[in-house]
Design a protein that fits this description.
Two copies of one chain form a homodimer. Chain A is of the alpha/beta class. Helix content of chain A is 42%, strand content 17%. In chain A, the strands form four sheets. A five-stranded mixed beta sheet of chain A has the order 5-4-3-6-9, with helices on both faces. The radius of gyration of chain A is 23 Å and the shape is globular. Chain A binds a DNA duplex through helix 3.
Chain lengths: 396, 396
Amino acid sequence: MRRMTARPANAHQARLLKLLRDGGPNSRAQLGDQVDLSRSKLAVEVDRLLETGLIVADGLAASRGGRRSHNIRLAPNLRFLGVDIGATSVDVAVTNAELEILGHLNQPMDVREGPVAVFEQVLSMAAKLRASGLAEGFDGAGIGVPGPVRFPEGVPVAPPIMPGWDGFPVREALSQELGCPVMVDNDVNLMAMGEMHAGVAHSVGDFLCVKIGTGIGCGIVAGGEVHRGVTGSAGDIGHIQAVPDGRPCACGNRGCLEAHFSGAALARDAMEAVEQGRSEELAARLAANGALTAVDVAAAAAAGDATALDLIREGGNRTGQVIAGLVSFFNPGLVVIGGGVTGLGHTLLAAIRTQVYRQSLPLATGNLPIVLGELGPTAGVIGAARLISDHLFSPA
Amino acid sequence: MRRMTARPANAHQARLLKLLRDGGPNSRAQLGDQVDLSRSKLAVEVDRLLETGLIVADGLAASRGGRRSHNIRLAPNLRFLGVDIGATSVDVAVTNAELEILGHLNQPMDVREGPVAVFEQVLSMAAKLRASGLAEGFDGAGIGVPGPVRFPEGVPVAPPIMPGWDGFPVREALSQELGCPVMVDNDVNLMAMGEMHAGVAHSVGDFLCVKIGTGIGCGIVAGGEVHRGVTGSAGDIGHIQAVPDGRPCACGNRGCLEAHFSGAALARDAMEAVEQGRSEELAARLAANGALTAVDVAAAAAAGDATALDLIREGGNRTGQVIAGLVSFFNPGLVVIGGGVTGLGHTLLAAIRTQVYRQSLPLATGNLPIVLGELGPTAGVIGAARLISDHLFSPA
DNA sequence: CGACTTTCTCCACTCTCAGGACAAAGACCT
DNA sequence: AGGTCTTTGTCCTGAGAGTGGAGAAAGTCG
């Protein structure tokens, strides 16, 4: 199950691997157009990469008016595992070296069951993907957890919503089980990396990626790099005060953004609305399902329920106010909204946009797109694969 | 007056120059300890730098148990000009290559008089410094302006408090007048660079530098680099909403931080307090000076005036609330408070600390110093000198 | 079939850089 | 005073990195 995975020997090789991964060039000549190396030097490095097996040359491309070029691509048997542990479910996917998803599984699961139970689940999902013939083994794995991570060590720290994970050696344990290198990061950062690799944020150097799910967090990308902060808690905006003397929050303060808008807050507000008889639509759904979640609110809103729409607008306004402050502060080139509640769609986006465009500086909002993520639940796993491939495609 | 200033020919030379500038090594051997080059290669590059005249070897150091080393230092006749244009005054200083201040002038001036008038003043101050024998000419100049800057071009954009400067080619104009390379940046960014070079933020990679003066802004340093945002307006936190439906602000919104706490807001609140008869101390100062400024509030507070202290605490609380959000978001390793109102000293700092430690995540505040800047009014000019020296000490 | 284009390979030459040998200059011990 | 050791700096050689030109390979097009 352990696979020998070569590493690039120098920065040139790393550059070439990443160019091939990120799609685009597929011949020596095209690579030469992008790397500013002489043809001779380029040929040497390509030959060395061919020797290591990290890339392969198979077949000839159609002529473009002269000699046909050799097709160069990353080894087709390379496999990365992307794992995205959410508060209430786990996503596991297999990708090839270009980070295209070959297989994807999703399983409901409560992260509070602790690392041992969750890992058992993750490993069985990975085994299932392997058994289906998508991979003989994994060359690397990336994993996202819903809380702050001490990045260099790959260890969660003081995660509020996942007791039992504090200090658990995620990287080491998973690496042992899978027999391959593993990198760990916050799930929101991975969503940002996913949207940067294959989504709306493609080739944007400075952007914010707000993930609204059970909790609420924000991936920060500055100069093309994820900013994690000194203790790995950067982007943890769920506990920024959104409403002075507002609702009490699990963290002990009042008025935190997360206490006013998140999957959990929305479900709670929907229950209150039913209790107060403000929405027959939601009441009907409660009666049918026995409980209410953000999905019910989204469905009610789609059916035109005024109360549900109000709840979403209200939450969007709160979130938009906080984001407006962050936009003034960070001056990003793009804001991406993602996570479980993107089902709330345009209503939510409109409320956020209104607040940001109204409250932030014109200079900061002048040319600022605020859009929904386009990868949905695959953003996290793609980001996870990208994380480990960035690591493996760097000089050892 | 134009001086020939050589530039390093490669990254090694750039590295050596910066090491020498930032103090520490002063011999070939000590340089060798820090740059991971063979002694031979190091000797070659040092010799080349000696040839260009950027560095000089003068005399021998005391022996440390063996052969005495040659003293190596940056050319002693290199001179940088640091200019810090504030809303109400201008600072101009001359530094040597190590960015030590050799002469410093400060002159009250209203930035709204426009770039032409201000430049006349700046040039006359620079001429005075030159005439006093501190410099024969300038090898480079850095200049900070109180508003957003399109950094690559060195041009202010849409500066709210400095009409008439929008689009004015500051870099080009000053470069023409002084006959040397010029770099332009926001004044707050330069304060951050100053504190990073020679102040409390020395060797801190991720920190925030909040400058409270006539307005309020925040320098953002991530990974040792200043984050300027896509339009150069990053750190403009004065118009983040601090009080819902609060005081009207010049920007058109209500409740902006700057409308509740800044030099201008403090003066206004002090006037109100006098009108309402809430402070005899402030009334006396108004009678004596004909007007009230933040300095009067500071003095009244130092004299124990309860109303003045309340104003400062109130402002500190507002500011602290905003900073608390930024700390949760950015997770810095240090927060520096600077600018004109640092005269408010410990009262202000205590209020800010209270809010941040109470409202931000424990993980983000666990080991987070919140301190006053230690360079005072020299931070800006040192940062300006640092900016241009970073530029000149990079390969051409 | 010849002229031209594109792709790739090979070769000679230059430059960078590391590391060892060694010289210079002093400290320290006997 | 003299020998030994340490520190600093210089010189030299050889291994690689890298460039650019010549030209071969393999195609298109008129």
